[in-house]
């Protein structure tokens, strides 16, 4: 290809071109020279998230901060860049992003928040005075967390472009009433929903908050969440709800997320709940259980109750399903304390089953989409099978078993006859499977471990995808203890074995062979199979984006 | 070249309102002449202002000399006007500074820009000079696409990028070319250094 005279283009045009590159593509251009580094750095970028938080090192525990910028490529693949810097540079780092668009800005500053915000505000003012530069952060959602400091938050938030800002989340241990009232009264921020989460507050504070929210019209989705170290007495609760002056139906919707609390049963009834993530796990001291409801992988659930006895936790859990339309996207049952509490998972299953039979007699089914178990001890297979059959087959699509000792064929023979198994789209088992591979071939995606597998069996896995249409990124992966029989696999191929690695520059001895199978059912897709020493993975990929699609699930 | 023999860019007659049916004549720096509809000219802010300022009537357009565009050659100008005719009447995008900038290259534009890099370079210059926002957008996108999946070394080859050292050398050369005295001073400085002097002054 004839070279293109980049340097001959006007500067504005070069900036325009660089702005059209996504973050991942900008880096190679930045690395070509200092002038291009400066040019690319000047171009605004869209970040999915930007987090500035303390980064603890044993020696410089207060001196180091981390900035994690996250962005997505056009193929929707997520990338993260992490950058460490001294605390005094933190304001400068954030200021640099004032020309960027950020979907979520997360400032987690703990006790350093005050210094950080004070310096940042001083810099913003200096920019205005000396360079007549008006700073406006273009951020869709901002979350500020701090242990004690709040003074500068109100001022800081006024430097956000409210045409872009859609949500303000504040998480403090304490915030005096005046400060909060002042923040909520800022004219510019009134159109932006505010989510407040605070601990250690008095009931009177809550009453005042409600009055404040009622007095000033606020956008939809504005909410506050206050928690108290002292239990609220019933009288105060009644006062709060009277103050809210809500119709009965509104009360239901307010309390939807508290559905699992038996203390509010009188305020909760027939609204369906759709929860993303529910986790049930025994805690270290044995007979207690922790129930978390919220976003996946988040330590802050909507409901993150204190440890309670198994019976209470399971009763709360089952209340989610009181309405027949209620649904849980992901149920995770795990036991990390298997040494002290060997029967943890078995007890949870038993309690769920007995709860179902007492609360929901008849043909009740749990609407759970993904079910994941993590166990380290022997599972009661009959109980597991009974629970499996209590899942709603029209909802259930994914089963994941980690460290889940499967000792008999009987369990799988039993559950494979069920409707629930037939509706499964994905199976993930991270334990040596002792059952024939053929049993898993009816699910679209499977991720399994075997001691060893024959070339014939592996070919069956590949062949499954060749003659029937499957969605993009449908995949299988099998890890084995013994080395994979490469020659035996090649002998089964109905096309010549041809190694066509996806990467041209990256060499890894673990990858022995990459075969690209043409698919008679699609002109756009290929089925790419990469064979390593002890792992084989196949993915339905777009011909145009083989590498990105192949790595979309995870690396081999 | 006479008016009769001037190359005429394909025009969709039906798309042009009757009262606006006027064709302007433009001449490239290599004396190639083009007739372009008034509606197509609106895609170029520069040309649109120019013809407005001239206030030509239909007779003026035919009788007066073609409007000269002195720094664009005929081959490039032909592409520019083809693009303008194809996109005439379309809204001109406004850059609100938002990111990510999403620019799709339509099929027609992709075919039009299926040209060698030298001509693509000239096309971008022309789009910038004539201030044709959307043509500049798509041509820049084409250049951005050339960077996809490239390493820094590959980018240097594709974009003909100088290294830092070459940048510095070019900068020095440019400075020296601008100020011959600077070179003399530099030489004098080197000479004194060779003679063992520690300080220039």
Automatic annotation (TrEMBL), chain A:
Recorded coiled-coil stretches: none
Protein's name according to its UniProt entry: F-box domain-containing protein
Superkingdom, natural source: Eukaryota
Domain annotation F-box: ranges: 9-49, 232-277
Classification via InterPro entries: F-box_dom, She-1-like
TrEMBL record, chain B:
Transit peptide listed as a keyword: no
Pathway(s) of this molecule: Protein modification; protein ubiquitination
Domain called SKP1 component POZ: residue spans: 26-88
InterPro entries according to UniProt: SKP1, SKP1-like, SKP1-like_dim_sf, SKP1/BTB/POZ_sf, Skp1_comp_dimer, Skp1_comp_POZ
One Pfam family, short name: Skp1_POZ
Domain SKP1 component dimerisation as annotated: residue spans: 134-178
Superkingdom to which the source organism belongs: Eukaryota
Keywords: Ubl conjugation pathway
GO biological process: protein ubiquitination; ubiquitin-dependent protein catabolic process
UniProt-annotated stretches for the region Disordered: 166-201
Biased composition (Basic and acidic residues): 169-194
Keyword Hydrolase: no
Function, in words: Probable essential component of SCF (SKP1-CUL1-F-box protein) E3 ubiquitin-protein ligase complexes, which mediate the ubiquitination and subsequent proteasomal degradation of target proteins. Regulates cell proliferation during embryonic and larval development.
Family, similarity comment: Belongs to the SKP1 family.
Name of the protein: Skp1-related protein
Annotated organism of origin: Caenorhabditis brenneri (Nematode worm)
Taxonomic lineage: Eukaryota, Metazoa, Ecdysozoa, Nematoda, Chromadorea
